[in-house]
């Protein structure tokens, strides 16, 4: 009945960057030569780690590579934290906590819809699925990553400006796939929330189960700070991966998010900060 | 297991402490469904605050350290978001703070418009510079209490005290005499953890507040001393993670027990867990009500 709770700890473990892989312009993957939690249990696809860059900040990052002896996360240089990350060199050190959250369930045959840097959150999922169909969209050719990594997979690429693949959105391609392909049993998605909302709506329409990985501001990663609440769900422990069935009941999904202060704002305002 | 605290009926004596999850209406309802007796909101002041940069919290062996720096949307925005608090499934305690006496008063007034069951006044956050040292000065704490009471009508007011003072009895006495209806004892204790690899404090704020098991003996001592000093009820808060911890707090003299860090250790099922463990202990010891053991540690001393 009673557990010795004071043994439970969550302290950043300072680890040395073993190698850095430049995935694209301003996009790097940071590899660490170790298991995450000291055990030999690999993280679940879709789980995340809290990454501490001393003197700068600590933020959640999706685990984008996971093998028997190393793991990585992929950062795209956007704000002060990711800009500082992408200036790091091999041998530099970072504090890592985790893995945290509930990940994806594996079901085949599947289609993965990824938008922008959201592909990092579904990358280890793609590694575990059996020949999934990947629909991957970015603003333009320059933002596309992992193309070599998934060269053996069937990948349908879209760009907003038409500089690579089909001009348009991933959801346009998904509609075509869903209306012609009867064999897909599961859809996974990660990317801009507006895109994911559309993906979930399409999956409901075509009655195909789906799972999406949400992004919210997080301070703790283990379910106490309350900053990542989406309706009554705590993203960091109930998610970040939620089923389409759950997401379609959440009025805040695809509509609002919370700032660092906890104030609720539109998604557009949330992405500005 | 139900109790009455300042006239408020609670289904059980567990109260979610301020700073954990109490940020939205839906989070309050969720905790109500999970068995909390009442929920305390995250502390709010007159302005929107981002709080400190991360890392702001972690658990080390024996306890928990946080330096969140009182982030919050501000009372105006909270009034828009919550609209009212008396239509929720469980009693809600609105937590407030200010930098000046006037701010304590005006934030309390706005909070009272949301109709919380009680208002808790945070004068003791260990990682926050209030401008004035309210947490160690009985005269100032009394002034804050009077200012808040003047602005909230009939809503009961609890003052949250800090353990980092020599004489907590004097603080308790001062706020009781100033009109406080209850005392929340205690807030976190200031502390620091240094990472050996980077040679720097782990918290971005360097200093944070210790909570969890490491804080419990300090909290029990403070509740014990306050119970000897005042007649108003005490919400015993600090390191309660099990039913036995809660019983210990009640034996020291608490009417209700605050639950904060235990949510980290056991998730939001912790309220049910603690209540079940309390009931089981009471059954085993043939104790029929919490009133029978409240403050009993004092009586035994007198024998």
Brief sketch in words of this structure:
The complex is a heterodimer of chains A (273) and B (303). Chain A is an alpha/beta fold and 273 residues long. Chain A has seven helices and 18 strands.
**Main β-sheet of chain B, in a few words?**
8 strands, parallel, barrel
Instruction: Supply the number of helical segments of chain B.
Output: 10
Helix share bin of chain B:
25-40%
What general form of chain A does the structure show? globular
The average pLDDT score of chain A comes to 93
Strand content of chain B: 15-25%
Low-confidence spans of chain B: pLDDT under 50, at least 5 residues? none
Spatial arrangement of strands, main beta sheet of chain B: 3-4-7-8-9-10-15-16
| Approximate shape of chain B | globular
Mean pLDDT of chain B: 94
> What characterizes the major β-sheet of chain A?
7 strands, antiparallel
Along the chain, the helix and strand elements of chain B come as EEEHEEEHEHEHEHEEEEEHEHEHHH
Radius of gyration of chain B: 18 Å
Which structural class do you get from the secondary structure elements of chain A? alpha/beta
Please report the total strand number of chain B as a whole number: 16
């Amino acid at each position: 009945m009673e557990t010795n709770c004071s043994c439970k700890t969550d302290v950043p473990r300072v680890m040395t960057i073993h190698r850095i892989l430049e995935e694209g312009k301003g996009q790097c993957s940071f590899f660490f030569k170790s298991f995450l939690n000291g055990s030999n249990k690999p993280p679940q696809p879709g789980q995340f780690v809290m990454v501490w860059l001393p003197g700068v900040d600590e933020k959640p990052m999706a685990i984008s590579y996971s093998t028997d002896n190393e793991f990585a996360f992929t950062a795209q240089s956007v704000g002060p934290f990711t800009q500082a990350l992408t200036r790091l060199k091999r041998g530099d050190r970072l504090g890592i906590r985790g893995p945290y959250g509930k990940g994806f369930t594996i079901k085949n045959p599947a289609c993965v819809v990824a938008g922008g840097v959201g592909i990092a959150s579904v990358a280890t999922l793609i590694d575990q699925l059996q020949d999934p169909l990947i629909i991957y969209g970015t603003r333009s050719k320059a933002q596309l990553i992992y193309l070599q990594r998934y060269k053996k997979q069937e990948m349908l690429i879209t760009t907003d400006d038409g500089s690579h693949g089909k001009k348009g959105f991933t959801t346009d391609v998904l509609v075509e796939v869903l209306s012609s392909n009867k064999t897909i049993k599961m859809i996974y998605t990660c990317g801009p929330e507006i895109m994911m909302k559309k993906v979930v709506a399409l999956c409901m329409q075509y009655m195909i189960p789906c799972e999406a990985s949400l992004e919210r501001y997080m301070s703790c990663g283990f379910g106490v700070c309350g900053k990542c609440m989406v309706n009554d769900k705590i993203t960091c422990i109930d998610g970040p991966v939620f089923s389409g069935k759950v997401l379609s009941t959440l009025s805040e999904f695809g509509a609002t998010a919370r700032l660092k202060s906890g104030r609720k704002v539109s998604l557009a305002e949330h992405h500005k900060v | 297991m139900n109790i009455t605290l300042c006239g408020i009926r609670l289904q059980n004596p567990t109260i979610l402490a301020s700073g954990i999850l109490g940020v939205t209406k839906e989070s309050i309802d969720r905790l109500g469904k999970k068995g909390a007796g009442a929920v305390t909101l995250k502390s709010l002041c007159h302005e929107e605050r981002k709080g400190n940069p991360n890392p702001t919290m972690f658990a080390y062996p024996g306890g928990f350290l946080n330096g969140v720096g009182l982030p919050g949307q501000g009372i105006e925005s909270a009034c828009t978001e919550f609209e009212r608090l008396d239509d929720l499934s469980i009693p809600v305690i609105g937590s407030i703070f200010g930098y000046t006496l006037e701010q304590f008063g005006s934030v309390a007034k706005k909070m009272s418009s949301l109709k919380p069951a009680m208002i808790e006044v945070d004068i003791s956050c260990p990682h926050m510079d209030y401008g004035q040292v309210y947490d160690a000065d009985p005269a100032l704490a009394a002034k804050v209490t009077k200012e808040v009471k003047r602005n909230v009508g009939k809503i009961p007011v609890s003052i949250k005290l800090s353990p980092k003072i020599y004489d907590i009895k004097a603080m308790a006495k001062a706020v009781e005499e100033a009109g406080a209806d209850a005392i929340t004892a205690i807030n976190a204790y200031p502390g620091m953890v240094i990472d050996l690899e980077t040679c720097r404090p782990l918290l971005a704020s360097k200093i944070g507040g210790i909570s969890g098991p490491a804080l419990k003996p300090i909290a029990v001592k403070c509740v014990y001393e306050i119970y000897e000093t005042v007649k108003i009820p005490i919400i015993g808060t600090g390191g309660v993670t099990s039913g036995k911890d809660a019983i210990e707090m009640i034996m020291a003299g608490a009417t209700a027990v605050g639950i904060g860090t235990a949510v980290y250790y056991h998730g939001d099922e912790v309220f049910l867990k603690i209540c079940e463990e309390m009931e089981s202990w009471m059954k085993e010891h043939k104790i029929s009500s919490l009133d029978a053991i409240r403050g009993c540690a004092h009586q035994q001393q007198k024998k």
